[in-house]
Amino acid sequence: MSALTVYPDNQPRLPRMAEVSQSVGNRCDQLGETFTEFSAIQNRLNAIGVQFERWTANGKLAADADQDTVLAAYSDSIDRLKQQYRFQSVDVISLHPDHPDKAAFRQKFLSEHIHADFEVRFFIEGRGLFYLHVDDKVYAVLCEQGDLISVPANTTHWFDMGENPKFKCIRLFTTPDGWVADFTGSDIAKSFPTLDQYVAELS
């Protein structure tokens, strides 16, 4: 289940189980609440310039499909984004619980940072938790299989893949350098729930 929580950046532990339902027309501007209805998540993120979409493959994908097969399965959506943002490169990455360097990979993304490029991820499998620090708010975005998130350049954020990461993602870049981060030096990420804690509180 995809989810979005909006917190004041100095209050990371507010109750956050007030789901917004499109059918009852509730507003999405209350801090500390969690939204799980897709259009509510999308609208809230669009308001801060973050693109959030759902993609569907052109055909059925095998679990062991190689990169070329995966990219072909989502070619229509990838081509649209390439035209929209002039992305120059695209690849597929994956990480699994038995990877010997999973802790090091996780730590790399956990500290607050920015990029000079977009951070674009489409989740083919698995899940991940993005935290976006915009003005005096922090947006926690739980992305699941089928979710596309595009975080604009220079947006302060961090990412948690969990203690036992399991995901496969498509990445798109506008520069040939790939993933390059400028860390803020803030320890704000330590105050907010990890992926595993966040998911446990949603259940």
Provide structural commentary.
The protein is of the alpha+beta class and 203 residues long. The protein has a single domain (3-202), classed as Jelly Rolls (Sandwich). It contains five helices and twelve strands. The protein has helices at residues 38-46, 67-73, 75-85, 102-110, 195-202, and strands spanning 3-8, 34-35, 51-54, 89-95, 113-114, 119-126, 128-134, 137-143, 147-151, 156-160, 167-173, 182-183. It has a five-stranded antiparallel sheet with strand order 2-1-8-7-10. The longest helix has 11 residues, at 75-85. The radius of gyration is 16 Å and the shape is globular. It starts with a strand and ends with a helix.
Q: CATH H-level name... which superfamily? A: Jelly Rolls
Shape: globular
From the 3D structure, determine the CATH topology.
Jelly Rolls
The poorly predicted ranges are 15-31
Number of domains: 1
Name the structural class.
alpha+beta
How does the major sheet shape up? 5 strands, antiparallel
What gap, in angstroms, lies between the N and C termini? 10 Å
Helix content: 10-25%
Write down how many β-strands occur, each being a DSSP E stretch of 2 or more residues.
12
- Average pLDDT rating: 86
Return the CATH architecture: Sandwich
Number of alpha- plus pi-helical segments: 5
How many whole angstroms does the radius of gyration measure? 16 Å
Order of helices and strands: EEHEHHEHEEEEEEEEH
